[in-house]
Each structure stands twice: as structure tokens, then as C-alpha cells.
Design goal:
Chain lengths: 107, 120
């Protein structure tokens, strides 16, 4: 099974900051990688799919990059609405494992 | 409106069974693969199971293999998860979510979840 390792597990940042979250797969997954945002009490929301494609309606400050085993999610200028937990997930072959999550908190 | 609505959660004793349902509206259900994802309150997301559009391919996380069965009825636009031999560690909020080749099988629509509690 493919394991997904996210870092950091938590992050404190301020509005306007540039933030980067990384995700590493235990073996190559091509670009079968999605990023999700989850706020307390809500279902996850797809932000990025195919490693770098912004989901329709998603803010352009979110971007994704990477292929193979190493991936990043970048928020170019943090907004108040962005404080949430972020997860990566591969969709290469079952089981479609999630990373453990990155909690983004206000500094 | 594209929507997924889960139901069927509840409180069950260890060893018992539950069947979750996920009703889809607003899109062509049989064009999409479907998934179940669970989350223990305060913890991360765990992918549980997948079924392709026609129902002839599926997959499971190891911890539920042999106990859970995913299925779908495209005539009713409904996804199911039959959960047998329930254990305390199956306690979680269960989401259904759709995927497609268009999103490289990432999950772009999610339900609000249904809660399963397994306790003696």
C-alpha cells in the first residue's frame, strides 16, 4: 500500500503569509494527487486535483505542484478564510490513502 | 443542485451490522465512481472503500476487508455500505464522495456525513 506523509502536521501563520505544505508518497503516484481543505464541522472540499489543477471555483491563491513522490500545496497570500486543516490524498490505486493532515492556525 | 445525502448511521453493539446509504441528486450518478471516507472526531480522514461507475470494481482499506461491502443501485441513484462485524474502532463520521476520471479520481462532491457509533 502507498503511504502518504504530510509535513508539517501543524503550522502557525499570519494573514498575507506565503504558506507551503508538503506531501510525500511512499512510491510513485504520477500526478494522481489531490489536496483538500476541511473546516471544523464541515465535509472536506477539493482544492487541487491531478497535483496541480485548481478545482473549479477555487481561489487562485492556491496552487499545487509535483509529480512522482513529492508534492506541495502553496497558498500565495494567506486569507482569514484559509485557516483550516489540509489533507493530501493519492488516487493512483486502492487503498486511496490520505496524509495525516496539516492544521493551519492563525499566529 | 449536485448533492449527496448519507443516512443509516446509528448506535450499534460490537459484532452488529449497519447499512449506510448515500442518495445522489443533481448529476448522472452512473457516470461516477463513488467512495466512502470516515473520520473519527478530532482525527484525520481515512478512505474506506471505492466502487466504479458500473459496480464491477471495488476496493477497501485493509481494516474493513471481509467485513464491509460497498454496492450501488444506479436505478435508484444510491450508494451503500454494508457494515458487518462492527468493532469499536469503526466508530466515526462516514462520508460518501464521488470521483471521476476528470479529476484524476479525486473526490469533488461530498455528503454531510452520517455518524456510526459502536459501543457495548
Amino acid at each position: 500500500d502507498i503511504q502518504m506523509t504530510q509535513s508539517p502536521s501543524s503550522l502557525s501563520a499570519s494573514v498575507g503569509d506565503r504558506v507551503t505544505i508538503t506531501c510525500r508518497a511512499s512510491q510513485s503516484i504520477g500526478n494522481f494527487l489531490g489536496w483538500y481543505q476541511q473546516k471544523p464541522g464541515k465535509a472536506p472540499k477539493l482544492l487541487i486535483y491531478a497535483a496541480s489543477t485548481l478545482q473549479s471555483g477555487g481561489p487562485s491563491r492556491f496552487s499545487g505542484s509535483g509529480s512522482g513522490t513529492d508534492f506541495t500545496l502553496t497558498i500565495s497570500s494567506l486569507q482569514p478564510d484559509d485557516f483550516a486543516t489540509y489533507y493530501c490524498q493519492h488516487s493512483n490505486s486502492p487503498p486511496f490513502t490520505f496524509g495525516q493532515g496539516t492544521r493551519l492556525e492563525m499566529k | 443542485e449536485v448533492q449527496l445525502v448519507e443516512s443509516g448511521g446509528g448506535v450499534e453493539r460490537p459484532g452488529g451490522s449497519l447499512r449506510l446509504s448515500c442518495a445522489a441528486t443533481g448529476f448522472a450518478f452512473d457516470d461516477y465512481g463513488m467512495n466512502w471516507v470516515r473520520q473519527v472526531p478530532g482525527k484525520g480522514l481515512e478512505w474506506v472503500s471505492y466502487i466504479n461507475w458500473s459496480g464491477d470494481r471495488s476496493g477497501y482499506v485493509d481494516s474493513v476487508k471481509g467485513r464491509f461491502t460497498i454496492s450501488r443501485d444506479n436505478s435508484k441513484n444510491t450508494l451503500y455500505l454494508q457494515m458487518n462485524s462492527l468493532r469499536a474502532d469503526d466508530t466515526a463520521l462516514y462520508y460518501c464522495a464521488r470521483d471521476s476520471s476528470g479529476t484524476h479520481y479525486a473526490m469533488d462532491v461530498w455528503g454531510q456525513g452520517t455518524t456510526v457509533i459502536v459501543t457495548s
